[in-house]
Design brief:
It is found in: Cytoplasm, Nucleoid. By secondary structure, the protein is α+β, with helices and mostly antiparallel strands. The protein is 57% helix and 17% strand. The chain has a single domain (22-108), classed as Nucleoid-associated protein YbaB-like domain (Ybab, Chain: A, 2-Layer Sandwich). The chain has three helices and three strands, in the order αβββαα.
């Protein structure tokens, strides 16, 4: 039984190292959220750090601040959705489906 526990601890340590590498990768990986057919774009890391906001100059000609604010908000939300999807995908690769075990799922978010 002792060998089994040692093996389990070794696997847990390996998984922890893999999760750390995945977190580091997410901090560097970028996604771009878009709105208005790409007229507003928000680039952010998969650790929720916004790197860049790009607004097509034609949107500023109308001086409709409310519409522009809505497009920036929509682009941010699109980017956040992409971050969440990518994070789940990468962490799912690391955990090998352990996140689907009842009671353990929240440990891998």
């Amino acid at each position: 039984m002792k060998g089994g526990m040692g093996g389990l601890m070794k696997q847990a340590k390996q998984m922890q190292e893999q999760m750390q590498k995945a977190q580091e990768k997410l901090a560097e990986e970028e996604v771009t959220g878009q709105a208005g057919g790409g007229m507003v774009q928000v680039t952010m890391t998969c650790k929720y750090s916004v790197r860049k906001v790009t607004i097509d100059p034609s949107l500023m000609e109308d001086n409709d601040a409310e519409m522009l604010e809505d497009l920036v908000t929509a682009a941010m939300n699109d980017g956040l959705g992409k971050v969440e999807s990518r994070s789940q995908e990468l962490m799912g690769d690391v955990t090998g489906g352990l996140g689907n075990i009842p009671g353990l799922g929240d440990m891998f978010k």
